[in-house]
Amino acid sequence: MGDLLRLLMKRSDANARAEVSVYMRELPDYRREAANPQAYAETLEYAVWLRRRTIECVSEDQPLAAEDLAFVGSIGQQRVRHGFSLHTARRVLALHTNLMLREFYDAAEGQDVQELLHLLSWFGTQGTPGAAAYLQAYIDAEHLRLSVAARVRTLTQLLLTGDATAPSLARSLGVDVHDHYLVVIVRMPSQLFGRADATHDDLVASVFKNHLALLSWQQPNELLVLVPHDGSVSLSPMSLSPMASDGDRLMSLVREIVERVARPCAVGTAAGAANALNKAVELARRVAHVAPVEATPRTLSGVADVFVELGAAQLPEVDHWLREIARRLANGPDLVVTLDAYYRADMNRLATAAALHIHPRTLDYRLQRVYNLVNVDPGSVRGVRILSTTVARVLAGAWTQAQALVPPAPAFRVPPDFGPATTGVPY
Fold first, then answer.
1. pLDDT in tens, the chain (427 residues)
2. Helix or strand holding residue 187 (H, E)
3. CATH of 174-302, one of 3.30.70, 3.30.300, 1.10.10, 3.30.1370
4. Looking at the chain, which terminus has fewer C-beta neighbours within 10 angstroms, N or C?
5. pTM for the complete prediction?
6. How much is the CA Rg of the chain, to the nearest whole Å?
7. Domain ranges across the chain
8. 3.40.50.2000, 2.40.50.320, 3.40.640.10, 1.10.10.2840: CATH of 315-418
């Protein structure tokens, strides 16, 4: 053992006490732990052991033994039992590394450079498995203490932040971490779902059990779901809506969620790579805010389905103009519902009438009424463009809550750049 290692061995007790003092100053969990004399003594004893064991291994040019790593892991498990947070578990590793390096350099003044380099080489090589043993044991123990719902929520958040510990938690749930996900945002515009965390957790646990989908409440009225995706469509922020092959499974999942919350919801989707899910989440959220609110979901909207509504929502002048059209349509007999069915049926009169359970001539009257109210032919290209967007905004609940806060729209007129109005409705 060289002079540097002997000096570090001599200073191990004092350095350990200084390290624990830093932990107490920087980390509330350690401050709380130090209030118990026995817990403080155990923390100090571990800090001393770690330093002395490091010096012994360096002097013998040996790696940390399996029993050493097991002991380090047992400390990580102990931290879980004592209520230490994951943030503390990670932060203490960084603090320990910085403090040990400082101790090395403080002791190295005037010592053999080769001995210092050998010490630093060993520390760099063995620090990685040591830190991994501590953190992995902490995470494994922490997962065992959490309910299924809590683990699902935690895994969802870890994936959203790209956390490296996500695969470990995924294994505890029996699922894999995938390269791509479809982000599904379920928005509840009406009153909040439930008042207790238990209500939210029951839904999370039930949906996960039935579909192995990861989900987490992002807001009291917004649920985020992550579904594995094959990446076969564009994964740019402008991803299209779900592929047909995914449709049945996704629809079943979403309908179960909506059924459990027992209120109409809007659904927005966007696909993204696992390392960039935040962009997909933001896009899916924007889609959900303009998607139709439905008691029984019929559509899983993506950007391709609502890009016109997204654009309209960004321009207040257009939004006010469409709102005035919606106000006028409200004066007719179920005109919004009629137009929704009409466009869903690709403007087929017989199919629309059958869907509405009305006579085709009644449908003709309603479409004529639309023309009389807004001077736009529902069957024209211009009409489809204007009226389908208006209907979509109404069904998304765009103006129901904000109506009283928005100043009255200007006098209604059809802007000339939308094309000339037709003189009648041909049927």
1. 688 889 999 999 999 999 999 999 999 999 998 889 999 999 999 999 999 999 999 998 899 999 999 999 999 999 999 989 888 998 999 999 999 999 998 888 766 788 889 889 999 999 999 999 999 899 888 888 888 898 899 899 999 988 888 888 888 888 999 999 999 999 988 666 555 566 788 899 999 999 999 999 998 889 999 999 876 654 444 444 554 445 578 899 999 999 998 889 999 999 999 988 999 999 999 999 888 888 888 888 888 888 888 888 888 888 888 888 998 998 888 999 999 999 999 999 999 999 999 999 999 999 999 999 998 899 999 899 899 889 988 888 887 643 332 333 333 344 433 333 333 333 3
2. strand 180-187
3. 3.30.70
4. C
5. 0.64
6. 31
7. 3-145, 174-302, 315-418
8. 1.10.10.2840
Distance, in Å, from the CA atom of 226 to the CA atom of 305, rounded to the nearest integer, reads 20
Place of tokens 């939308």: 418
* Strand order across the beta sheet in which 180-187 lies: 214-219, 222-228, 180-187, 266-273
Please give the class, per CATH, of domain 3-145.
mainly alpha
Nearest to 124 by CA among 157, 100, 142, 158: 100
- In DSSP notation, 313-365 reads HH-HHHHHHHHHHHHHHTTSSSHHHHHHHHHHTTT-HHHHHHHHTS-HHHHHH
